[in-house]
Specification:
The structure holds two protein chains of two kinds. Chain A is an alpha/beta fold. Chain A contains 27 helices and 14 strands. Chain A is about 55% helix and about 10% strand. Helix content of chain B is about 40%, strand content about 15%. Chain B has helices at about 65-70, 70-90, 135-155, 200, 210-225, 245-250, 265-270, 285-305, 320-350; strands at about 15-20, 25-30, 45-50, 55-60, 105-110, 115-120, 125, 155-160, 165-170, 175, 185. Chain B starts with 13 loop residues before the first strand and ends with a helix. In chain B, strand 3 and strand 4 (about 55-60) form a beta hairpin. In chain B, the strands form three sheets. Chain B has a six-stranded antiparallel sheet with strand order 1-2-3-4-6-5, covered by helices on one side. Chain B has a three-stranded antiparallel sheet with strand order 7-9-10. Chain B is α+β, with helices and mostly antiparallel strands. Chain B folds into two domains: about 1-120, Phosphorylase Kinase, domain 1 (2-Layer Sandwich), CATH 3.30.200; about 120-280, Transferase(Phosphotransferase) domain 1 (Transferase(Phosphotransferase), domain 1), CATH 1.10.510.10. The interface of A and B includes residues 201, 353, 358, 556 and 626 of A.
């Protein structure tokens, strides 16, 4: 063991076989080592030869007077100074003060001794089955601060403040070759291989609140939108929409008899409204096309463009939560969370996908979407609308007018002739009005145009019906019932109803068909769709262009850094491949037993190393120096792997490496199978303190001990990370209630402190003090 | 003058003699750098530093060792010279040579180790450079690469092997290099096996067409933007990629060659006017004459390498002929005599027995 070291709050000072004049130097070195370890409250484990305790009295005094040591355990190693006289130790009284515990180790190997029955001793291997050196285990255990404190407290309760230790321990450690092989496999697990397309396309972790930048939802709570409500573009849209709705309303109003009869409803005003709607639609489309072309930059919009776009109504108010710092924070959160869950190379590919999706394409790219709405097929149709499709010779209407005139003229006598004539004339007048409206839309106003429209056919049908009615009337003339007033009124009413219905149907059918041809309702939907495209383009290609470009470049830069970390780790692994080769078989065994526990534990460390390597890159990103993100990444990654390797050699898996994450999510290292078969650890820690343990003295020196209820203390200890292994195995054991749970270390077990018999320790002052007495 | 077989760093000054692309003699005073043969390459390259105040150069040669292992390396070099010379003729003064194309300065195909001299290639190859380019640089690269392809297309040249290894980037401008696989449109082109080549190129018997380079340029752009390699078979999927990439490469990988968008369409998608660089008209007699002159030189060289027919051995002189016949006859008689004697002895022995 080293002469002066420090381990988690306990300084170690060994004076064995060292000249006395060097003792003080070693003491200073031990305290310096403790200081370097950051420990102020110094505990000192002092190891000395049992025969030289008196010789080092001055040093002990100095140590205790220095106020730099709060408590001390003196481990005196050596055979009894006078076995026949029953003297184990000769010490100075300085070693019996409060806060000092004196432990005598009569034999470094010890004997297995069952204190309760005091039967025959056994070789220490009967207890310590893993072949370890009991004294080394005792020292390692005492170097754990919690164990040290409890031992000092336990010895203080013993009659002489002196004791002989016995122990049984278990160690949770793996051999270095196995660790290195596991380390290499963990690196391979963390770095991974290049991902295939389906894996990349599934995407990685989401960028919280930044989905908008990569093509996600465009709805932002609390964001008013990229266009000012009073902007020219918004006004133009409103006017266009209003024109279309108004024109559609007027066209609908043309239907029915009222639409035919009332000039305002079917006059030139309707045509003008439709034409205006078409013109406004065209103007709006042109305005959008112009502004999308004007603002096209495929990146950050320059100042001159921005001024013009602002004049058009684009609002550059900051979008909540989407500034550069937030973007970097989100990206870092996603990447840090993904490391360890995804291989680094897959993560790099995902970052490139983010970069690709975030890249602005310029507002002109949205022109295609605008064109696909085909507003320019609608606008000309509205600007120069087709004429009202009034059927020239509508067979149903002609049949209706013939039937109506027949009904009107069927009454015998003058009534039938007059009624039939009146209805025929009335019909022709209405049809004339309808044809004039239609001709006026075509721009034709001449009588010839009206005649050409089919008026003659209607006249023919009316006359035919009237003639038929008169013929029936003549045939029915002898029937007086038909000449009664009710019959006359009924026939006239029926004729009127029929003619009115037929006229309304004929006219309304034409109006509906015309409305279908105009498709003004679709025009309104097109305007809404155009507005949506404009707003999306304004938000993504103008207002957020800078943020999107930044995210694209930042993700790309980090992709390079992540890939460089992966390549550096793989290069380091390949250069150190020979170190891991020798342990291929133990690793295979471990894998079968542990189902990857070791790999998971080490992979977590390697993932933390990757995060630590990338940490400075985020700071560089925040500063905006994207081209310097990867500076030093390769060297840092390799240096951390060197550090990790050294840490595994020194600390095994007891502690996480210095670069490991701290905090609630950082778990203590724990590897179940390192502690032996299930239940073994609980058995060791719960061993009876008066049972079979390795007592660190020779068999013949057991007589120097004073076992018994008041002469024995026990300290049980285990790392906190093994709590469930100790407590969850087997029935509840009261002995386990007093286990000291340590925050570090790789040992667990029980230390039995047996008091020395009266007179076994002789206290002697130095020569200049002649008084001496025996305890 | 030392041969092109120099392997190590040479600080001595040498006279380098060759021909310029028009066949005129060219002499430069230079120092040679070390040869370097990239993995899988069919030629070696080395830097050539000017010692006469002229511009530095890059020399590309088929060294003897390589030529022995791969005889077709010579054909590749000659083809590269042919195509590069064509480009030099087309974009020669007073026109500006497109910076997107590698430029031939001189050549010597007659030596034991034929070589080409180029203006030094600029920048670095795009292999592994995906993560180094920010969005503005990517846009610049796309435009520059497509301009280079347009410059080739307007010369009726099909590169045929556009990959990240054959395209370089200097931070401002892309440069297309390695014209060994290039062909004129309609010429039979060697089959390709990688995903960088269009599907029709991977099938045998393909004749070079401009659509081949549209696929190749699209593949390079896809790789640089996404960092992903081209799939070995089939087309890359763009459905989940960014809008800008999808819009630019729409139809490049999904349409058959005859309906694939041309390079001018891709440039318009970038909102760039697809005007090819000015150059000598392909029908210009001087342009055609330059090409013919080069082809004739090449043909003469190949003819000079054809082995001469082995002459028939001369007839033997009469006396020598008569000695031969006499000797043959005597041998025959002796053989028959021995055989007879042997059979006679055998019969006597049998009788005696």
């Amino acid at each position: 063991m080293s002469e002066a070291t420090s381990d988690a709050g306990v300084a170690l000072l060994s004076l064995r076989a060292a000249p006395t004049e060097l003792a003080r130097e070693r003491f200073e070195a031990a305290l310096a080592a403790a200081s370097r370890a950051g420990d102020d409250a110094c505990r000192l484990l002092l190891i000395d030869d049992a025969a030289r305790l008196g010789e080092h009295h001055d040093l002990f005094e100095t140590i205790l007077a220095s106020r730099r040591v709060d408590s001390m355990i003196c481990l005196a190693i050596g055979p009894p100074v006078d076995r026949p006289q029953g003297q184990a130790l000769r010490a100075t009284p300085v070693l019996t003060v409060e806060s000092v515990a004196l432990l005598w180790v009569g034999d470094e190997s010890g004997v297995a001794w069952r204190m309760d029955t005091r039967g025959a001793v056994r070789p220490p291997e009967a207890v310590q089955t893993d072949g370890s050196q009991p004294l080394s285990r005792l020292v390692a255990a005492l170097l754990t601060a919690e164990v040290f404190d409890h031992v000092v407290a336990a010895v203080a309760q013993l009659p002489n403040r002196a004791a002989n230790p016995g122990l049984r321990t278990a160690a949770g450690q793996l051999d270095l070759a196995t660790l290195l092989a596991g380390h290499a496999q963990a690196i391979a697990m963390v770095t991974g291989r290049d991902a295939d397309e389906p894996t990349i396309e599934r995407g990685g972790p989401s960028l919280e609140n930044c989905e908008l930048l990569v093509g996600g939802d465009t709805v932002l709570p609390g964001y008013a939108g990229p266009l000012r409500p009073d902007s020219p573009l918004v006004r133009l849209r409103a006017e266009s929409e209003r024109s279309c709705r108004e024109a559609d309303r007027l066209v609908r109003q043309m239907a029915g008899l009222s639409g035919l009869v009332r000039p305002a409803r079917s006059g030139p005003g309707v045509l003008a409204a439709v034409s205006t709607a078409g013109r406004r639609l065209g103007e709006y489309h042109d305005a959008l096309t112009d502004v999308l072309e004007l603002g096209d930059s495929a990146g950050t919009v320059d100042s001159s463009r921005r001024i013009e776009l602002e004049r058009q109504g684009v609002c550059w108010d900051p979008v909540p939560g989407l500034n550069r710092l937030t973007i970097v924070a989100r990206l870092q959160s996603a990447v840090d969370g993904a490391i360890g869950r995804y291989p680094l190379r897959t993560l790099a590919s995902w970052l490139l996908l983010v970069s690709d999706r975030a890249m602005p394409q310029g507002s002109a790219a949205h022109l295609d979407r605008l064109d696909r709405l085909n507003p320019m097929a609608t606008a000309p149709r509205l600007s120069s609308p087709p004429p009202l499709p009034l059927a020239a010779v509508p067979a149903p209407a002609l049949a209706a007018v013939a039937t109506g005139c027949l009904l009107a003229g069927v009454v015998p006598g003058w009534w039938g002739a007059v009624a039939g004539g009146v209805f025929a004339v009335l019909w022709l007048v209405m049809v004339t009005v309808a044809y004039r409206r239609e001709a006026a839309q075509r721009g034709e106003r001449s009588a010839r145009a009206v005649l050409r429209s089919g008026l003659l056919a209607h006249a023919g049908a009316a006359l035919a019906g009237l003639a038929a009615g008169r013929a029936v009337a003549v045939a029915l003339a002898p029937t007086p019932l038909l000449s009664t007033v009710p019959v006359r009124v009924a026939t006239a009413a029926a004729a009127a109803a029929l003619l009115g219905f037929a006229l309304s149907r004929w006219w309304s059918a034409a109006v509906h068909q015309w409305r279908t041809q105009l498709r003004l309702d679709r025009a309104v939907r097109v305007i809404a769709a155009q507005d949506a495209i404009l707003r999306e383009a304004a938000l993504r290609e103008w207002v957020l262009a800078g943020q999107r470009s930044f995210l694209s470049d930042a993700a790309r830069a980090m992709a390079g850094a992540v890939r460089e970390v992966a390549e550096s780790l793989d290069g380091w692994r390949e250069r150190h491949a020979s170190d891991a080769d020798a342990a291929a078989a133990p690793v295979a065994t471990l894998d079968r037993d542990a189902v990857g526990d070791l790999q998971s534990l080490l992979a977590e460390d390697v993932a933390d190393a990757a995060r630590a390597t990338l940490a400075p890159c985020w700071e560089v990103l925040r500063s905006g120096a994207l081209d310097r993100v990867r500076l030093g990444v390769a060297e840092d990654a390799e240096a951390l792997m060197d550090q990790h390797r050294q840490h595994l050699a020194r600390q095994n898996i007891d502690q996480r490496p210095p670069f490991a994450r701290r905090g609630d999510d950082a778990r203590s290292p724990r590897l179940a199978q390192a502690w032996g078969p299930p239940g073994h650890l609980a058995e060791v820690v719960g061993a009876a303190s008066d049972g079979l343990l390795v007592q660190l003295c020779a068999a013949e020196d057991l007589q120097l001990l004073e076992p018994g209820r008041w002469g024995t203390q026990a300290v049980r200890f285990a790392p906190r990370s093994t709590q469930d292994l100790v407590l969850d195995h087997g029935p509840r054991d009261a002995r386990l209630d007093d286990v000291v749970w340590t925050g570090s270390g790789h040992l667990a077990g029980v230390i039995r402190l047996v008091a020395l018999r009266a007179g076994a320790v002789e206290l002697i002052w130095p020569e200049e003090a002649p008084d001496a007495h025996r305890l | 003058m030392p041969t092109a077989s120099d392997r190590g760093l040479d600080t001595a000054v040498h006279q380098l003699r060759c021909s310029d692309p028009h066949g005129r003699p060219l002499t430069r005073t230079v120092r040679f750098g070390p040869w370097h043969t990239p993995a899988g390459a069919l030629a070696s390259v080395r830097p050539v530093t000017a010692a006469d105040g002229g511009p530095d150069l890059a020399q590309k040669a088929v060294l003897t060792d390589l030529g022995r292992r791969a005889g077709y390396a010579y054909e590749m070099l000659e083809n590269e010279a042919r195509i590069a010379a064509r480009l030099s003729h087309r974009y020669d003064s007073p026109y500006a040579y497109p910076p997107e194309l590698v430029r031939l300065v001189g050549y010597d195909l007659d030596g034991e180790e034929p070589f080409l001299l180029f203006a030094p290639p600029r920048g670095v190859s795009l292999a592994g450079a995906a993560a180094d380019l920010h969005s503005a640089a990517l846009r610049q690269l796309e435009e520059s690469l497509l301009r280079g392809v347009l410059a080739l297309a307007s010369s009726q040249v099909v590169h045929g092997a556009l990959t990240p290894q054959t395209v370089r980037w200097d931070g401002q401008c892309a440069q297309i290099t390695e014209l060994g696989y290039a062909r004129l449109t309609g010429e039979e082109s060697p089959p390709q096996t990688t995903g960088w080549a269009a599907p029709e190129q991977r099938a045998g018997g393909h004749r070079a067409r401009l659509a081949d380079d549209v696929w190749g340029a699209g593949a390079v752009i896809y790789h640089v933007v996404t960092g992903a390699p081209m799939p070995a078979t089939g087309a890359p999927r763009l459905t989940n990629r960014g809008e800008a990439l999808r819009a630019l490469l729409d139809g490049v990988f999904t349409e058959p060659a005859e309906r694939r968008p041309d390079v001018a369409t891709l440039l318009r998608r970038l909102r760039v006017e697809p005007s090819p660089p000015d150059g000598a008209a392909l029908t210009d007699p001087a342009f055609a004459a330059g090409g013919h002159a080069f082809d004739e030189r090449l043909a003469r060289k190949r003819a000079s390498l054809r082995p001469a027919p082995t002459p028939a051995p001369p007839p033997l002189p009469r006396r020598r002929r008569s000695w031969l016949w006499g000797g043959a006859t005597a041998l025959l008689l002796v053989t028959l005599g021995v055989m007879s004697m042997a059979s006679g002895v055998g019969a006597l022995l049998a009788v005696a027995a």
